[in-house]
Amino acid sequence: xxxxxxxxxxxxxGIFINSGKVVAIRNISGxxxxxxxxxxxxxxxxxxxxxxxxxxxxFVVSGKFKKExxxxxxxxxxxxxxxxxxxxxxxxxxxxNNKFPDKLLESFLGKEVLTLSYVRGIDAxxxxxxxxxxxxxxxxxxEEKLRKQFAHSVKRGYPKDYKNPENDSMAGxxxxxxxxxxxxxxxxxxxxDQPGF
Length: 197
Known about the structure:
This protein is mainly beta. Helix content is 11%, strand content 29%.
């Protein structure tokens, strides 16, 4: 029998796929993507998602361009923005100032999306998994593509805090029954413990 999951799909790899619907989107280019961020991002967007719960989580996709002498030469850490746009089949480019073209962000409203959460460690006290959220979105129905993108990114060293439960360094985590921390129930509670949201 496969392990039980709650709120998304989990294959025992410490990766959890959630789905939601975009109900709002905001351009945060030039702003700090998070309250505790030291610097503003060059380009970014915040998605508000309807997930069928009493709250609507926000999902940030942002980064800084690669620059030489203040001239943009590549995507840099904003590659997540490019990959998200490509995942939704959006073609073209940014405007001459490397900003989102008019109406581009509005095109996401109402779309069904997938997000990916991953194990980033284990709490030493509770023995529960600590979860991180990958900053790339994909359209509903492209779960396998999102997993492959994440695996490719992990091979390149990002996200740096991903911990594969198959790895011996993750003592205390079990992957044999749908992945869950040792001693914790196989079914996540619909609370703050739920991966991703």
